[in-house]
Each structure stands twice: as structure tokens, then as C-alpha cells.
Amino acid sequence: MNALVLAGATATGKTAVCQLLAERMGAAILSFDAMLVYKGMDIGTAKPTPEERRRVPYLGIDLFTPAETSNAALWLAGVKRQLAELPAGTPLIATGGTGLYLRALLEPFDAPPPSPESRARWQGVFETNGLPALQNALRERLAPGACDALPDFKNPRRVMRLLERLDAGEDPAQKKQSPLPAIITLNMPRELLHPRITNRVRAMAANGLVDEVRRLRDAYPVWSDTARAAIGYDEIADHLDGRSSLETALERIMVRTRQYAKRQCAWLRHQTRPVWIDTTPAEPLEQLAGRVTAAWQQHGAVPLPGCFSHAETRRRGE
Prior knowledge:
The radius of gyration is 20 Å and the shape is globular. It is of the alpha/beta class and about 325 residues long. It has 14 helices and seven strands.
């Protein structure tokens, strides 16, 4: 099974391009975004609109409630089920900005399932002593200097997951990761991307983000740690609870989103062979879509790993 892949930092225009091209091609869109997996978290994650989803089948989204834990392995299992239901011959476009999920798509993914006991243990360490305690625990478990080669060593959720994998008997430092194949990647200069992020956050507020968070908190009083990691939801919750003004909450969302975009670009630069397509907010969508199409034609679709073969078999009716 192959997919046409378009990556890039948040707010660079991936969704609009893929929506346009999927409608033209009769393709389905597979999202590798870690936060689009949550039902009801629509405005704050910039999820495709209901109208867009009526025109194009979307996979990899709305798999869990905010009360449920998500990770790459669980997401991948849901994606496999959805792929198996696609009509035979449906072209597939994959797009998003979560590096771990992209790697899970393009490489065999055999990480052990998380242990609730192990997860609770390391979550407790983090809540009591913070990220440095998690990093020290990881350093004690790995060979000297091994942590320096690990991605996302400053991301507490990723460090906790590495510790869980060690508890399960796996040594992530011994698992060599080769660079991913050539990935068509949108790139926007920071001086243009940051104002675009600002405008998008303000549009989310105008389109009902506060009401969305209020409804979700009423429906799900307790959220999983992974759902709470979504940018925007804790910030708006603080506003609803009187701990900040709406303007302060929005400013915090903008800052976190800019920081996230920087991390996304760094990951793509170091973990893939990005084929950069430089763009600006002023570029017409049709023009950008044409350049993405030309890049796909030049570099070809990206093979998905053998773990998707059963889905392909079912789609063919074999």
C-alpha cells in the first residue's frame, strides 16, 4: 500500500491543499496528527469541518474520547481498521505534523503496549519532581551519552513513554532508526508563519473555542494526560475557571503553537529527507496544489510498511 505524503508545521496550509487534491483525485485523507484523534476536540485542533469531511473520507481522526489515552500504537490500530473499510482502488493522501505518527506509518511499529502501573509510576514522578527527575531516571537506565541521541528528550510525555518501554523490556537506545524517505514538506518563513498562527488562534476563539472546551469538560470531567496535552484546551480551561483572562489564554496558545511549529520543523529536518516547498500565506491555493502535485509526481508515493498488507487484502476482497 502506498500513500502520497504531505508534511509540514502547523498552519502551513497542509489541510487545505490535501482537501483540494483529494476531492479532485477521489482520494481519502489519512491524518497523522496526534490531537485530531479526539472526538469533539474540533475547533482547537483545526480539524477538517463537517462539510469537508462529507466531501472526502478522513482516516485517523475521532478515534477516542478526551477521557481515553491515545498513543501511536493505538492510533495505528484504528487506522488499520479504517483502511480495511476503504473501497478498493481508493487513492490515499497522508498528511499531518506529528513526527512519531508519521514514523509509525512508514516503519514497522512494534512498541510494547503501555503498562498502566508503569505509566502511573512515571506520571507520579513527573508530577512530584518534574521533567529533570524523569530525565535522570532515563540516564540511569541507559548507557552513558545515549540520552543525547534520543529525540524529544525535553518532552516529558515522550520521556515517560521511553521509561515505560524500558520497564517492558525494550531498550529504545539499541533500536536504530534510519532516516525516513523523501517527504514533501511545506515550509513557511517564521516571520510569515507567526502572524498566521496568531490569526488562526483568534479565529478559533471567534468560532466558539471557549464553548467547545466548556461542552467537553461537562461531558468528560476527567481527561487523559494525552488529551490534556492538546494545545489550547488547558489554557481555555484556566480562563473558564477564572485563573486567566481570555486574552491571556489566547496569548499562551499562540506562544505554545509557535514553539510547537519550531519543534515540528526541527523533527522533519533531522528525521526525514524533506523535500521543501516554500510557500507564503499569499500564494493561491490552486498554485500551491499544483506545486505539491508536481513534487508527488517527481518523487512518487511512499510505501507503507507490511503491517498494512492485511488491510490492503481486505480492500481487494481476497
